[in-house]
Amino acid sequence: MALEADVFEQLRATVQRFVKERLVPLEAEVARTDRIPDEVRQEMRELGLFGLSIPQDYGGLGLDMEEEARIAFELGHASPAFRSTIGTNNGIGSQGLVMDGTDAQKASYLPRLATGELISSFALTEPEAGSDAGSLRTTARRDGDGYVLNGTKRFITNAPHAGLFTVFARTEADGKPGGSVTAFLVEKGSPGLSLGKIDRKMGQAGSHTCDVIFDDCRVPASAVLGGKEGQGFRTAMKVLDRGRLHISAFCVGVAERLIKDSLAYAMQRKQFGQPIAEFQLVQAMLADSRAEAYAARCMVLETARSKDRGENVTTDAACCKMFASEMVGRVADRAVQIHGGAGYMEEYGIERAYRDVRLFRIYEGTTQIQQILIARNMVKEAAAAA
Fold this sequence. Notes:
Helix content: 40-55%
Number of helices: 12
């Protein structure tokens, strides 16, 4: 359910001001220390940012997809680590519960996720199963009144801080191992659950990932998301539609920030007696970036509106994710080029953005996975219409 227009505009303006006045000035510190200050996390809680997409009945703001995209545009004007702090609670870490959780599961977890008291993680990727989610090796064996989980999840965002993990594991089907995928809600501190060391990454300092290890980890039967075995893969795919749109919107915001910074630099930086913004080859880079970012913004908003109307947007969401993540990579590359030597230096922040945006082409499904998904759906639709 969408907010009233004036209420949403107040929220958007508040987030925009928070990003500009509070987050942007902290970017260099976060990059240096690899942590988000505790007081900033608390301010995010007070603004309701941990519950943007969680229904109002559970204490969230209940934004629809278009509203969430517009907030992501604003968040994109600050380093990705800030968005990542709230990202899993609003996206893949909570939406499985929102879409498929039982009433008891929703009541138990969603209010705490909405306030940021509880941080969630989406534990799908494994050492041998990333893009190929169907090759999951983590197992969940029924044992008495519960299940025993074994396996390792890899590169799990916010895992070092999470109190709740949505874990995807293979349950037996008809008494045979290797059956269907089931989602489990596993709490921090469960016996047999441990974490690996925090990963050292190319970029996005302040956003943490690590392995999540299950060694005879026992969970009760009530931990099965939705209370039914075999629904995990379907849940994951539904969650990823919304997650891909959110990331696409964030990519647009990052691109728009880079374009703004590049234009400002080009207008004040002089060579051969005039601002480099007067040179046509620099203008071409600015224009290409502006056009591509605008195209991505339009794609995201149109697809978000379709989702809000209840339409199937799996193919279009994949198109958005593919285009927007590739687009922001090109924009970041041009930003370095426009800044010249300054773009390669740490103090300007452009080289940091260049490294940060590289991840967007990988997570929530690589560009190549989006291409496969789009093409396969095109073939299915054409065959069905024949």
